[in-house]
Amino acid sequence: MLTAVIRSAGSTEALAATFSVLIPAVADGFLGHAVVLDAVGDATVERLADATGASYLRAGGSESWPAGAAQARGDWLLLLEEGDLPQAHWPQAVERHLLMAPDRPALIPLKGFAQSLRERAGLSFGPHRLRAGLVLPKGHALAGRLGGAPQRLAVGRERAAG
């Protein structure tokens, strides 16, 4: 089972947009759980998490990914920022990756030249650090580190304004 771990900085609109893309994967049984990490302690973010059945955790900063992993029910995690919108067919791309390379993390990269460039530049400063877009085993997230370089998936993600 896959768990989405979503970091929020208080934009309920961006968080709702991310949830809207994840709901079909829940309906298909691919995504079983979500954890919302709220960096600012916004009551509306907590209510939105509760309304969607997601777990809510007040956590911010780089330590938030492992904290979210500890709350996850699934063995695999999808790390997202509020406003991240995985493109159509992302569950199929992730499922194929899990079948073909079950021990290797994957990355649903940001679409768009400027965003992709920023994401790639960030990789040069820490290619094995946890970041949004990753699909990885729960144990890697609990350790706060990838087990190796992620495989870039053919499907991407966009970022909604929030």
Question: In words, what does this structure look like?
Answer:
- The chain has 162 residues and is of the alpha/beta class.
- The chain has a single domain, classed as Spore Coat Polysaccharide Biosynthesis Protein SpsA, Chain A.
- The chain has six helices and nine strands.
- The strands form two sheets. It has a seven-stranded mixed sheet with strand order 3-2-1-4-7-6-8, sandwiched between helices. A two-stranded antiparallel ribbon has the order 5-9.
- Strand 2, helix 2 and strand 3 form a beta-alpha-beta unit.
- Mean pLDDT is 89; it is low at 121-125.
- This is Glycosyl transferase.
List the helices and strands and how they pair.
Layout: E1 2-8, H1 12-27, E2 31-38, H2 43-52, E3 55-58, H3 64-71, E4 76-81, E5 84-86, H4 90-100, E6 106-107, H5 113-125, E7 134-137, H6 138-143, E8 151-152, E9 157-159
Parallel strand pairs: 1-2, 1-4, 2-3, 6-8
Antiparallel strand pairs: 4-7, 5-9, 6-7
Protein name: Glycosyl transferase
